[in-house]
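Researcher: I'm preparing a figure for a lab meeting and need a structural model of a single chain. I don't have an experimental structure, so a prediction will have to do for now. The sequence is pasted below. Please return the structure as tokens so I can convert it later.
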Amino acid sequence: MKSKLILLVSLLLVANQSYAVEKGRWYSDRQVENGERLFRENCAACHGQNAEATSDWKKTDANGNYPPPPLNGTAHAWHHDLDLLRRTIREGGARLGGQMPGFEGRLNAEEIDSVIAFFQSKWPDDIYQRWDGRNQASDLPSLSDIVVAAKKPLTRLLRQRIGNAKIDDVQETSIENVWQVQIGNQYVYLLDDGKFALMGDLVDLENGRNLTEQSRRVDTVETISEFADNDLIIFAAKGESKATLNVFTDTSCPYCQKLHSEIDKLQEAGITVRYLPYARGGKSGPGYETLKSVWCAEDRNGAMTDAKNNRFEGLPPGDCAQAAIIDRGYRAGNRVGIRGTPALVKNNGEKIEGYVPYRELIPQLLQSTSQ
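Model: Understood. Here is the structure written out token by token.
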């Protein structure tokens, strides 16, 4: 009798583990059950009991920080691959412009996966499938995959105008019957179920908010967050870090060199500088091979300083695994609309185009963190 009971329990556990998998999802029902408990103990205070969180999640607070977003499929969590979701829970949400603490040491890897399983279980099938397809095949879905939230397909006219370009998913705006879609680094607004397309910024005149710029900043923060610290070259603040500046840089750019000559002033002011590579002109650009060599150096900070001072003789060959970051950085810069270097990006996604002298730049960065 005891052996039969054990067998029955085992069969039930296997069935329970396989149910979600049969639905095409990576996790099991048991993970969802465990994740619900862990989520409500650790995450629900900010993200809501059912991962519903803050409805106005794209609007920053007085300090320039984003509130906890919904994790139930209605916000941008489904834009992130599994590794990034895990890393955000483990290391915290500062990379994404938020204030969520890291849970490393509090939740182990298995528990983190269970938390993700719980909130992904709230995602409708179409959202989960887009997430799954986005992370298996391509950064962006194809035109045939794009539908508006009302399940109406994009019109034939939009397909004709866009051709074979890839576009991001259509998002509902706060304006009735107006939808936003990102094409490359441009934002397009669809009217009358996609019959008309309007290009440009959408501004809420009543509240004085540029809604398109808010979307740009969210996308920029997400794009930069895809890079781990060891992917970048970081010049840490001296003492307490009061602000972070992300810089798309090219070693051959004169104004990048000028900014780098002042980097010690930024560090002394409590500003951490995180360099992302952006080779102007791509593989044919003048700084492409040098950037690869810098990222392959054992002392990348020293190599960056040497390259910015036109000292190339000590740089290693650019044939290491880390050299792939140069192409990633170039694609990321294009995705967020970088037009030249240096391109400065605050932690909330706000871009500062071009070189700014340190005497002007430091107050800008420190003020944005104290407001």
